[in-house]
Design a protein that fits this description.
Blueprint lengths: L4 E6 L2 E6 L10 H12 L7 E6 L13 H5 L7 H15 L2
Parallel strand pairs: 2-3
Antiparallel strand pairs: 1-2
Helix pairs in contact: 1-3
Length: 95
């Protein structure tokens, strides 16, 4: 897992936390790529998955400054549809 996403478990609650409070938890392309793995790591006996953001903001959106490094790799999902598809794939494959 990358430093910008942390996971924790307390009883039947599995937490996934965005960890970039200094910028309102803007999501980088690296985070978009790592989120499906965070969901794949949810144990089968978890009753609740709680996604939170460290600090005052849950998530102010995408960090477009991170896009140029990954935009030409062809590996990172692009736009909202790519993000949703990657996240959905991670959630579905974890079950």
């Amino acid at each position: 897992m990358i430093a910008e996403i942390s996971v924790r478990r307390e009883d039947a609650v599995h937490g996934i936390e965005l960890n970039r409070p200094g910028c309102g938890n803007l999501v980088t392309m690296e985070m978009v790529s790592a989120l499906p793995d965070a969901f794949r790591g949810v144990p089968r006996d978890a009753k609740l998955v709680l996604v939170t953001g460290r600090g005052a903001d849950f998530c102010k959106g995408r960090d477009y400054r991170s896009a140029p490094e990954s935009a030409n790799t062809g590996r990172a999902p692009r736009g909202r549809a790519g993000f949703a598809a990657g996240l959905s794939a991670g959630v579905l494959s974890s079950r």
